[in-house]
Every structure is written in C-alpha cells, then in structure tokens.
C-alpha cells in the first residue's frame, strides 16, 4: 500500500514545490493528463479481457467465468467459478521493487 510509504522532508518539499509551480517531474503541468488507451478483447481464450496503457504503464487482464453444476447437497444453488490473470509492465514492477528496497533500508 503506497499510502503508507514514508517520504523524507526533501521529497515532500519537492512535491509541494512542483504543485505550487504547476510542474511535474515528467514535464507535464498539474492539469495535463497522460493519454490513456483501453483495448478490449485482447485475449481470445477468456470470457473477457482488456489492455490499459497509460504513460509507461501497461496492464493486461483476462477473466474466465464458468457456470458449474450444483453440488448434490445444495441442488437449488448454482456455482459460478471464475479466475483473473493479470500482467503488469516491467517498469511498474521495477518502480515498486525500488520503493520496497528503499523502505527496507
């Protein structure tokens, strides 16, 4: 949970100054948004899938759903089985790893 990652005073000042000066580290203003691209149906052997790209982040999610036969002890109740698989780009995993390593020091 990134909300509990402690920031140094220098990091806090850097963020506040960026907001005050309407400037982000990547050159965008505070009101500029990254382009977001969403593509659906990217994995053919799933019940549903999508790919979301934003900046350097690339997420692919596939969902499979299956209706099963009721079990004999509850014949009036059906069963729904589902699974979710996801892929997160290397860049995001790398940033998360670096953040975790910093916290361990």
Description of the molecule:
The protein has 105 residues and is α+β, with helices and mostly antiparallel strands. The protein is built from 2 helices and 4 strands, in the order H-E-E-E-E-H. The longest helix has 15 residues, at 90-104. It starts with 8 loop residues before the first helix and ends with a helix. The mean pLDDT is 77.
What is this structure's SSE topology?
Layout: H1 9-20, E1 36-40, E2 48-54, E3 57-68, E4 79-88, H2 90-104
Antiparallel strand pairs: 1-2, 2-3, 3-4
What is the gyration radius calculated from CA atoms? 21 Å
Average pLDDT confidence is 77
- Which sheet architecture does the biggest sheet show? 4 strands, antiparallel
Based on DSSP secondary structure assignment, what is the total number of beta strands? Answer: 4
Structural class designation: alpha+beta
User: What's the helical proportion of residues?
Assistant: 25-40%
Strand order, main sheet: write it out: 1-2-3-4
Q: Summarize the helix and strand pattern as letters.
A: HEEEEH
Regions with pLDDT < 50 over 5+ consecutive residues? none
General form = elongated
Number of helices: 2
Distance between the termini: 18 Å
Range of strand content: 25-35%
Descriptive labels:
single chain, alpha+beta, 4-stranded antiparallel β-sheet, 2 helices
At a glance:
The chain has helices at residues 9-20, 90-104; strands at 36-40, 48-54, 57-68, 79-88.
């Amino acid at each position: 949970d990134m909300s509990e990652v402690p920031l140094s005073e220098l990091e806090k000042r850097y963020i506040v100054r960026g907001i005050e000066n309407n400037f982000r580290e990547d050159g965008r203003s505070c009101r500029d948004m990254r382009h977001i691209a969403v593509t659906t149906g990217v994995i053919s052997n799933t019940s549903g899938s999508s790919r979301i790209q934003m900046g350097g982040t690339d997420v692919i999610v596939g969902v499979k759903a299956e209706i099963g036969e009721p079990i004999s002890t509850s014949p009036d109740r059906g069963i729904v089985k589902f699974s979710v698989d996801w892929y997160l780009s290397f860049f995001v995993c790398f940033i998360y790893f670096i953040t975790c390593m910093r916290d361990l020091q």
